[in-house]
Design brief:
Number of domains: 2
Number of helices: 1
Number of strands: 28
Strand content: over 45%
Radius of gyration: 26 Å
Oligomer: single chain
Order of helices and strands: HEEEEEEEEEEEEEEEEEEEEEEEEEEEE
Structural class: mainly beta
Helix content: 10-25%
Shape: elongated
Length: about 325
């Protein structure tokens, strides 16, 4: 009887060991697949600093990492010809990523997606220049979507057509960003653009354009100056323009300047929208503030210095 019991116990013990071995094998397989998935995402593998290949970068899952090029001192060059249906850089789901090297994107693929897409609480810092002049199959755009998502730019943008902040996202123009060439900076349905240095806007639209029917848009530049050199039809150098059906906007601590003595510093075309200017200085425009529709509130604004014969505040169906 003892032998049978011992044998039963022994068999039971062996059975548990077999189950345990199978379980460990399953966990090992899951870990292997997970590691491969992260490797396939091209987001580096180091705990703090990771190296990436010259292919689309995808980072998610709350990882915090500084990315360097695998080729040492060279730039990160992403050729999209073999990567249709992907953005060149995607940061999402709480990932916090800093790219140290210059980034260059070329190729005819990409499925019409933006070159850089940050969403769902992702944060991306680009420490050097980003060049997309050779990318032909993508939107030459940086898109920052949803509250908690952000992009910080510390280098020159080459070849871009648009920087879009929407649904509460944020873009920070760092101190090295001294000029925006032919790039449309837009806020859609709420979001924030922060200037950490003085920036000159050379484009065919307003320097910063606020659109949409809801949300709160903020332009922050405490002590900073945005200089507008507009050349587009009807713009003649508009600093900040607000369009759309509604929403609210605020501009805080910013100096808005025009080099040509034409155009409008702040132009509100939104039917029910309200823009508040707090501690803002507007200078060298033909019209300081224009409220064609909507409402503009001046709170603690320091100065409106206009060209000879210019208007401080004009309105059509709006209120100023």
């Amino acid at each position: 009887m003892w032998v049978m019991v011992m044998r039963c116990v022994f068999k039971h013990h062996v059975y548990l060991c077999v189950v345990s071995t199978a379980l460990m094998a399953g966990l090992s397989l899951i870990t292997s697949h997970t590691s491969k998935a992260y490797a396939d995402q091209n987001c580096g593998s180091g705990s703090v600093v990771g190296t990436v290949n010259n292919e689309p970068i995808v980072c998610d899952g709350g990882v915090t990492r500084i990315l360097n090029s695998r080729s040492g001192g060279k730039d990160i060059n992403i050729n999209m010809d073999k990567h249709s249906g992907k953005a060149a850089v995607t940061v999402k789901d709480g990932a916090n990523i800093t790219i140290l090297k210059k980034l260059k994107v070329t190729g005819s693929k990409g499925g019409g997606l933006p070159v850089i897409k940050v969403e769902r609480g992702g944060a991306l810092t680009l420490n050097e220049d980003v060049d997309v002049e050779g990318a032909t199959g993508m939107q030459k755009a940086i898109v920052v979507d949803e509250s908690g998502s952000s992009v910080t730019l510390n280098g020159v943008l080459k070849g871009f057509e648009r920087v879009q902040v929407k649904n509460g996202g944020m873009v920070v123009l760092g101190e090295k960003v001294t000029g925006i060439e032919k790039v449309k900076v837009k806020i859609n349905d709420g979001g924030t653009v922060t200037l950490n240095g003085n920036v000159t806007f050379n484009n065919d639209e307003a320097g910063i354009k606020i659109e949409g029917s809801g949300g709160t848009a903020n332009v922050i530049g405490v002590g900073r100056t945005m200089t507008v050199n507009g050349s587009g039809s009807g713009s003649d150098g508009v600093g900040i323009q607000m369009d759309g059906a509604g929403g609210t906007a605020s501009v805080v601590g910013l100096n808005i300047k025009n080099n040509g003595g034409t155009g409008t510093g702040v132009d509100v075309q939104s039917g029910t929208g309200t823009m508040t200017l707090m501690g803002v200085e507007i200078s060298e425009f033909r019209v300081g503030v224009n409220a064609n529709k909507g409402t503009v509130k001046l709170m603690g604004s320091r100065r409106l210095r206009l060209r000879m014969g210019g208007r401080g505040c004009g309105w059509g169906n709006g209120e100023c």
